[in-house]
Amino acid sequence: MIVRLVKLTIAIDRVEDFRALFAAYHDDIAGFPGCRSVELLQDLHEPNVFVTHSHWDSEEELNAYRQSVIFGRIWPATKLLFAAPAEARSFEVKIK
Question: Residue 87 class from Cβ within 10 Å (0-12 exposed, 13-18 middle, 19+ buried)?
């Protein structure tokens, strides 16, 4: 299993736009083949900093999502809201 964390720093005046965008696509992401779960975390002290936390069956399925039509809609719209470049990391679950 792969855990994907993506830190997103959103422009202060676009936070609500980002939350609405994520909410609109949440079910599409969660329903993508190989996605076990996806959630949005918001920093307690910096409300314009978010982390997406998702679980994938494999890196291949994560990459298939990243090359999909749905990602092609979500990512460009999300990038328009950035205050800083995104930071992404993938991890393999070793002990649960």
Answer: exposed
Question: How many other C-beta atoms lie within 10 A of the C-beta of residue 54?
Answer: 21
Bridge-partner residues for 9, per DSSP? 49
CATH architecture of structural domain 2-89: 2-Layer Sandwich (3.30)
- Residue 65's Cβ-count burial label (10 Å; 0-12, 13-18, 19+) is buried
Q: Model confidence over 25-78: pLDDT tens digits?
A: 999 999 999 999 999 999 999 999 999 999 999 999 999 999 999 999 999 999
In sequence order, which residues have a C-beta less than 8 Å from that of residue 64 and are 6 or more positions away?
33, 34
Handedness of CA 81, 4, 89, 69 (dihedral sign): negative
